[in-house]
Design a protein that fits this description.
By secondary structure, this protein is α/β, with parallel strands linked by helices. The chain has one domain (3-143): Nucleotidyltransferase, domain 5, CATH 3.30.420. The chain is built from four helices and five strands, in the order H-E-E-E-H-E-H-E-H. It has helices at 3-12, 67-89, 112-121, 133-143, and strands at residues 18-30, 33-45, 52-62, 94-101, 125-129. A five-stranded mixed sheet has the order 3-2-1-4-5. Strand 4 (94-101), helix 3 (112-121) and strand 5 form a beta-alpha-beta unit.
Length: 144
Amino acid sequence: MDMAEVKEFIRNSTKESAVYVGCDSQSGRHKGKRVSRFVTVVVIHKNSANGAKVFHRIDNMPLFKSNRERLMKEVELAVQIAYEISDVVGDRPFEVHLDINSKETEFSNVVIKEAVGWVSGMGFTPKVKPDAFAATCAADKFTR
């Protein structure tokens, strides 16, 4: 993902355009090695009504053995990108979408408090499943 291109696209978008950042991951193989593949996306919803532009970045990292650690890495990568573009977002709607389930019965829920706290503490608006489409749909599409 070319951050200069992302920032320029946001600068040239209308003030009504919404900006969403999300990350998803999946275990798999890359160059013969088992890895955790992280996909971080920036979605700019044009005028908050007219389609979207999606930018993405793929990071292959050594396999994470702990789901908690992998989920928090997703949060870290999303917050990192949100921070990098925050200077150009201005007053546009801006959210960080987390691939974490709000249902207590789901395994990803174990990190919900710390993940939401991290995002909020950085000054961003966090969203979790089922309202986290940038992570659960856009980023998920690129993990496969």
